[in-house]
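Our consortium's second objective concerns turning raw sequence data into structural hypotheses that experimental partners can test. To show how far this objective has progressed, the report includes one record in full. It was chosen at random from the queue rather than selected for favorable results. The single chain below, 231 residues long, was entered without modification.
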Amino acid sequence: MGDKILLIEDDLSISEMVRVQFEKEGFIVVTAFDGEEGVEKFSQEAFDLIVLDLMLPKVNGFDLLKIIREKSLIPVLIMSAKDGDVDKALGLGFGADDYIAKPFSMIELIARVRAAIRRSTYYTVSEKEKSTIINIGDLTIDYNNFSVHKREVELKLTSKEFHILKLFISHPKQVFTKAQIYSSVWKEDYYGDENIINVHMRRLREKIEDHPSAPIYIKTLWGIGYKLGDF
């Protein structure tokens, strides 16, 4: 059986094109054509990945992302024609894992879908291999439950933000370039798109730092990269 994808897209022609190509690649595809139907199908079935258009009728993509993230860390790949919407979905706590801009090529979409599923599977297997709770400063990181607490208050980190933080905690003395962060967390080659790293790093700091403009947990080494602060 192939991986199961929930495709939520209100444009019928795009939905049909994507569905046909996905099924040719061996995926099992369930379609929804508005946000309400997306919520319903997400609640009824188990999926390996969700492909989500942001501009949906009835329940928009941002609200749907919130609903999904309250229940699951399933990878979500968004489709949008607006860069501003992409920035919001990736960075403002909505919890998307990746995006593709419209219009897109099916080759790129399929590659991103496979990469997202591969990353999700990798992390699931890795976390089952060990149960570890790490304390650093005021943060408590539970690798097994994908949770982070600060002074006993749970922080709502996205999957990517969690794994970026874990990367630094697991290698406390190492300096990571943006390319290394992308390669380690996204599990694919880095092509110089600094925006995706900048957005995730900014939002992560806004959640874990008391003063994001003067961070203590993840330090910037200008012109080089980032490293964990000294604790």
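The partners drew two points from this record. The radius of gyration is 18 Å. The chain has a mean pLDDT of 85. Both points have been shared with the crystallography group to help prioritize constructs.
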